[in-house]
Specification:
Blueprint (H helix, E strand, L loop, with lengths): L3 E3 L1 H17 L3 H18 L12 E4 L5 E7 L4 E8 L14
């Protein structure tokens, strides 16, 4: 399987979201984390499954939560650019795709 590399900014927003959900209801943050891991597994198994957007990213919707994983496949790894909320700050990660 192709290894996954998570951008530092993306990892930070992931853990902030986990904390947010955990503070809303005990165990919900862990559920969110499990759904993120499942999405990463789906991406790893089939990285070209989701369409390419104009910015060169692909987006995998997370089950049960209004988030998607924004990623870019590269020859030797899958680069996770953002764990983005579906309805907040559209395309805020666009500057991250040029790193």
């Amino acid at each position: 399987m192709t290894p996954i590399v998570i951008l530092h900014e993306a990892e930070t927003e992931l853990w902030e979201a986990v904390e947010f959900y955990e503070n809303r209801c005990a165990g919900l943050g862990l559920d969110f984390e499990r759904e993120i891991k499942a999405a990463l597994d789906r991406i790893q198994q089939s990285p070209t499954r989701w369409p390419i957007h104009q910015d060169g990213t692909r987006r995998c919707l997370v089950h049960r939560f209004p988030y998607f994983v924004v990623y870019m496949p590269h020859e030797d790894h899958l680069w996770i650019v953002a764990f983005a909320h579906c309805r907040r700050r559209p395309r805020y990660w666009s500057g991250r795709t040029e790193k």
